[in-house]
Specification:
45% of the residues lie in helices and 12% in strands. By secondary structure, it is α+β, with helices and mostly antiparallel strands. The protein has two domains: 3-133, dinb family like domain (Four Helix Bundle (Hemerythrin (Met), subunit A), Up-down Bundle); 141-248, 2-Layer Sandwich (Nonspecific Lipid-transfer Protein, Chain A). Helix 2 packs antiparallel against helix 4 (113-133).
Length: 251
């Protein structure tokens, strides 16, 4: 997948939802946030990642210290600011080198890790903006499936940290099956518990609970942007396993 091209396209689609809107409107899927705060969060996040990569940082950067971290007040300028932040990250990765190790919240990773991370961050917040504005949201199945994979990679590292209970009990498994054509094993995930943490693999399985549906709907359900009842997803097995998974994983 060309993550850079997909990231720029997703940034463009996200930005388009902010044309001719009341930025004080609330974002239902991000409680306490307005559209203006959502825009600032995404745009500053891109510039934050770009500065980490550009300066080849190996320690945390306070997002409040990011250069140009606030959008200009005029709507057209704010949209240009959004586009500029995404391009700044692409340029920083190219300048620093895709494999150059830099700081991430999962430990040191190659610089181009940030492009994939920001692609999927933007995709989910694109859905938030669409829900808030009544705008259109579509996502290629391959991108949605990769977003689920990337999200599970992070959950497997972070779940149970700081003494928090795991979102699955020993012996329980959760299976996801994306029904979009052409995904193959990239559209199947079996999640379980092993070694005191969450494990997962791209393989077919029944699972204590199983979800079957389109990759985009599966992604939005996993990150609690939509209720299962409002999607075409089929749930098989123990609903309690699914509810516990939702309660124990991040937005």
């Amino acid at each position: 997948m060309d993550y850079a091209a997909a990231f720029l396209e997703e940034n463009r689609a996200f930005a388009e939802l902010f044309r001719n809107v009341d930025e004080s409107e609330p974002v239902p899927t991000c409680p306490g946030w307005s559209l203006a705060q959502l825009m600032r969060h995404v745009g500053r996040g891109d510039r934050w990642a770009a500065q980490i990569v550009r300066d080849r940082l190996t320690d945390f950067l306070d997002p409040r210290a990011v250069e140009g971290g606030k959008p200009p007040p005029d709507p057209a300028g704010a949209i240009s600011w959004l586009h500029g932040g995404a391009q700044r990250l692409i340029d920083a990765v190219e300048l620093s080198g895709v494999e150059t190790p830099v700081w991430t919240f999962l430990g040191p990773r190659p610089a181009n890790w940030w492009i994939r991370r920001r692609l999927h961050e933007t995709a989910v917040h694109h859905a938030d903006a669409a829900i808030a504005t009544g705008g259109e949201f579509t996502l290629e199945a391959s991108i949605a499936a990769d977003a689920i994979t990337e999200w599970l990679e992070r959950v497997a590292i972070q779940a149970g940290s700081e003494g928090a209970p795991l979102p699955l009990e020993d012996g329980n498994t959760l299976h996801l099956h994306a029904t979009d054509p052409g995904l193959g094993e990239a559209g199947e995930w079996t999640i379980g518990v092993g070694g005191g943490g969450i494990t997962w693999s791209h393989e077919h399985g029944k699972g204590s609970a199983a979800l079957r549906g389109g990759a985009t709907e599966l992604l939005l359900a996993m990150v609690r942007r939509v209720r299962l009842a409002d999607t075409g997803i089929e749930l098989f097995g123990d609903d309690t396993v699914w509810q516990n998974w939702l309660a124990g994983t991040p937005l």
